[in-house]
Design brief:
Blueprint (H helix, E strand, L loop, with lengths): L1 H12 L5 E8 L2 E8 L2 E7 L6 E5 L5 E8 L2 E10 L2 E10 L2 E2 L5 E2 L2 E10 L2 E7 L16 E2 L10
Parallel strand pairs: 5-12
Antiparallel strand pairs: 1-2, 2-3, 3-4, 5-6, 6-7, 7-10, 8-9, 10-11
Amino acid sequence: MIIGLILGAIMASNAPAPQTGFTCRAGGKRIAVTLRGDRLTYSFGPPGRPEISLTGGPQGDVFYHRTMYNRGEDQTLRFVSGQWNYVLFNRWQAPQRLSNDRVWPEYNVSGVLVMKDGKLVRRIDCNGSGNLTEWPIFKLLKQDAENLTPDDA
């Protein structure tokens, strides 16, 4: 019994640490997505004490979409929990030179859309922007039929 507990503790300590693929602050809260093995975890809440934590993977509770544009991209990760959907979004557009030597600045916005029964309940924007790291696991996730970003919600 004791040997089993010790071996279990050793194996748990040898498990790979989660990799952070997205993090940002939203007021006093932290929005994060981490990867451990083939499982993604979305968390939201005060640092170190998440109020919401959802884990899923290619089996179906997490969906991904990416749309590339000439000078930018939209990405979403949607975590499903019953009638609730938490859509992490990142929209980026490169700066663009306009006439008269003016420049349209870079646009980078991230956050979460909280939806219930398909309706937008709340939009939570990051202070500044986050950057969603694209991992190989994203290709294994079910693809969303549409890329729901704030302009679409």
